Amino acid sequence: MFSDSTPAGSAAKGRAGGTQPGWHIALRILTAMVGGYALTSAVTIVLARTLPGSPLDTAMAATLMSFGIYTAIIVWVFAARRILAVTGQVLGLTAVTGLLAWLLRAGAAS
User: Fold this and answer.
1) Where do the domains of the chain lie?
2) b or e along 4-15 (b: 16 or more beta carbons within 10 Å of the residue's beta carbon)?
3) Mean pLDDT to the nearest integer, 99-110
4) Are 31 and 86 within 8 A, CB to CB?
5) Contact of 18 with 10, CB cutoff 8 Å
6) What pLDDT shows up at residue 107?
7) Cα 89 to chain center, whole Å?
8) Angstrom distance (rounded) from CA 49 to CA 75
9) What pLDDT was estimated at residue 12?
């Protein structure tokens, strides 16, 4: 009924006008699962160390916030147009936040 030159025919192909290779989906899943977990863990550590209150309360609050943070990262990874850019951003944020968590841990130990 519709040819590929009509808007309805091209809408079925995806946002970019063509189908994405399978490795894009695999990279999105890997970035969301592994990168999202690592970034969420680092952010949770930083929040637990920097929120005011007793250690038990801050750890509980940071852990509860981590569920929303992880969900937001997953949505961000799958909503992004460029998977390589978002993968780099997740890795960069993980490195910076992990370094900050390590510095906070080292400062608390001394």
Assistant:
1) 23-109
2) eeeeeeeeeeee
3) 82
4) yes
5) no
6) 72
7) 9
8) 26
9) 42
Q: For tokens 């510095």, name the residue.
A: 103
The distance from CA 72 to its chain's CA centroid, rounded to whole angstroms, is 7
Nearest CA to 40 among 64, 78, 73, 79? 73
CA 48 to CA 60: how far, in whole Å? 8
Q: How far apart are CA 23 and CA 8, in angstroms?
A: 26
Amino acid 14 reads G
- Provide the token pair at 98: 């992990």
Query: What tens digit of pLDDT does each residue of 9-32 get?
Result: 444 445 555 567 888 899 999 999
Token pair 């290779």 is found at: 21
Intra-chain end-to-end CA distance of the chain, in Å = 73
**Per-residue tokens: 101:** 């968590």
**DSSP string covering 29-52:** HHIIIIIHHHHHHHHHHHHHHHSS
